[in-house]
Specification:
Elements (H helix, E strand, L loop, with lengths): L1 H24 L29 E3 L12 H9 L4 E8 L5 E3 L11 H4 L13 H5 L19 H10 L3 E6 L8 H11 L5 H6 L1 E5 L2 H10 L4 E5 L7 H4 L5 E3 L7 H8 L10 E4 L4 H11 L3 E3 L1
Length: about 300
């Protein structure tokens, strides 16, 4: 408990110091980066093929357990992986659930349970209806009965395990108001305190407007833009995004350097974390391109 209190106090000091630096650097960030090097958000990981590299478990340990489930979170924890990534969408009755696809078909038994409700879009089902679904058997019978987690239950499990979270707001254009709702759930679950905000949470989306809204509503939360904004637009993104997370196929040394040459909104060098990558490609991305992390 004492250690937690000390970390929280230190977190508050770091955030205050970062705010002072940001004010000195100019409104909104986006300037050219310079020493000193920023505090790294992603720690050295163990238990995945890239030992010692900065690895975020994509949809949890999805190679070993059904993606985006509590089992995948726990499996990442068992493998000593500190960071997990997830995807958040909204049900018909306004509840936040953790699932990647826009439909329930691939990763649940929705087609069997609700045969007349094709195409089984997440937003066409209530939370109670989704809670009936088996989200584990498609992966392996060992996980039969695993459920699609609510965001609240997912946050609780990640927190219980002492892990960190890269949270993706999925398809924000389909869910008006979802940014405000996600931030409210993060607050209710205790994830917007200094300790989590300092080194335990990044919110990302393909939707640049959604990421900008996160920063506007909760400026202390670190954010990431998925995709590959043009180099000309990177200074604009640096005003509200700490990371740029492009697919591996779009990586180049010049692009990575262009991102890392900028200060983000928290007075730290912007970072690059890539995805859509094999283990061998990830090793090359670190050695040849100098990326900061991989979502694997």
């Amino acid at each position: 408990m004492l250690r937690s209190a000390v970390r929280s106090a230190a977190a508050g000091f770091v955030l205050l110091f970062a705010a002072v630096l940001a004010a000195d650097a100019g409104a909104g960030g986006g300037g050219a980066a310079a020493p000193p090097a920023p505090v790294r958000l992603v720690s050295a990981q163990k238990g995945l093929p890239l030992y010692g590299a900065s690895v975020i478990a994509h949809r949890g340990a999805a190679k070993y357990a059904p993606e985006n489930t509590l089992a995948a979170v726990d499996e990442a924890d068992r493998r000593d992986v500190e960071w997990v990534e997830n995807d958040v969408q909204r049900t018909k009755d306004g509840k936040l659930v953790v699932i990647h696809d826009t439909t329930l078909k691939r990763t649940t038994d929705a087609e069997e349970v609700y045969p007349k409700r094709s195409p089984w879009r997440v937003g066409d089902f209530t939370a109670a209806e989704i809670a009936r679904l088996d989200a584990g058997s498609w992966f392996d019978e060992e996980f039969a009965g695993e459920r699609v987690p609510t965001l609240a239950s997912y946050l609780n499990r990640v927190d219980r395990n002492g892990q960190h979270l890269l949270l993706e707001i999925k398809n924000p254009e389909q869910y008006p108001g979802i940014v405000k709702q996600v931030l409210a759930q993060l607050r209710d679950s205790g994830w917007l305190d200094a300790e989590h905000v300092m080194d335990g949470l990044v919110v990302q989306s393909f939707g640049g407007d959604a990421v900008r809204e996160v920063h506007s509503r909760q400026p202390d939360v670190r954010t990431a833009v998925l995709g590959t904004p043009s180099r000309a637009k990177l200074p604009e993104y640096a005003r509200f995004a700490d990371w740029i997370n492009p697919p591996y196929k779009d990586l180049s040394s010049a692009y990575v350097s262009a991102v890392q040459s900028l200060w983000g909104p928290h007075a730290e060098r912007m970072e690059v974390h890539t995805w859509g990558v094999s283990v061998s490609q990830a090793k090359r991305a670190f050695s040849s391109y100098g990326i900061d992390g991989v979502i694997l």
